[in-house]
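Weekly puzzle thread! Below is a chain. First person to post its structure in token form gets bragging rights.
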Amino acid sequence: MLRSLFIFLILVPGLAMAIRNRYAGLLLYVWFALFRPQEWLWVDVAFLRLSLVIGLLLVVPALLTGVFPTIKHPLAIGMATFVGFSIVAQFVAVDAELAFVWLDYLVRLVIVCLFAVTLTTTIRRFVLLMTVMAVSIGFHGAKAGFASLIFGGIQFFDGLAGSFVDSNGYALACAMVIPLLIASGQNLHWLRATVTETMPRHWMRVFFYAAAPLCAFTIVSLFSRGGFLALMASIVVLVLVQRRRLLATVGLAAVATAALTVAPLPKGYADRLSTIRTYEEVNETSALSRIHFWRVAVDMAMDRPLGVGLRNFEEAYDQYDFSGGEYGTRRAVHNSHLQVLAETGFGGAVTYVGLFLASLWILLQVRSRARRVEPPTQESKFLFSTANALIVSTVAYLVGATFVSMPFNDLTWLTFALVASLHRLAAELCPVSKPVIQRVPSYIAPAIGRANVA
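Winning reply:
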């Protein structure tokens, strides 16, 4: 009953606001896609097709009022190009019907992302969108981490619904939202005109900063080796992007020491992690099978350079399995990057890699712009903190996705939209000024050299 009340207290006012305001429709769609309330409720609401309804409330009125998706930003072009290669793969798909279901999903997701870039025009809107993304998954992660902590360290075997349905996907999602939770806490003051009027800002910041380590403990409780590697990579990058790296290192070391002292480590977790290094010695089937699946993906791409169709790796696996069925039939690739290669071909894989390289390059540029502002302003601090968070989140995905098949998840593609929006905000808030060339009086020029005369 309480779950239903909680969901409807968000959903009903959200639908009313979405009818009147396109940005409210975007936030509601993102919350629904990531939080997935239909899976959390005890009653079945699937027949209402709320995701489609909310999507239509966003797209149709926007088009009728002259609000169009962004198509000129490099990341927008990259996302559209990836859709194009996915369409090409559809014509040669092993199972065209299954591939079309995922193509339809990808097209709708990219359209929402392009509208998100259009609608996220202010710092306040950016922070609100980032916060909705972080809380939608961070709520589940913090709740699970708190439960594991209270009950002495327990192991979770299942994940969330949707893209994060298994433990590996769930762990990766938690690793990706941890930096977003931190950045949301750092930038809460930009929401003073919306959320913080009804809830003290101090307590909201406590929630965000507490949710981050709780999500990390959820990763531990999920026994996901890929999630652990993603968490470790994100921690290293989080330290490297700080202004004061030594202070950040000492602070994280203190937090880690306290956590290891107080938090109960789930039984068998250390043994589980040890197989990352010794999987060949102990003949760890899971790790050995993944290496085989990766080789199959490469063979598949070499034989069918246009791809086998979205989510069709499993359909084509038996045809390319050179182990004689040693690891079973219709297996998943367990690697998002190689899944893209096998399913969308070389063109899709190049575009996919380009999206991440372009995102990281843009974020490094935004970060550099923010650091050049002296003395730092509230706007430059916002740019610096959010660019850092998105860099860390992207690295967490790139590392963790090496061990799980989930390249078409909402969180990753919405992150591209955040990067594009931040890029545009940085250009407005910290424009690159042309170097000032001062004219040197002619009577001074001979003394310092003609090269300095403009």
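Puzzle host: Confirmed. Bonus trivia for everyone else. The CA atoms of residues 148 and 154 lie 5 Å apart.
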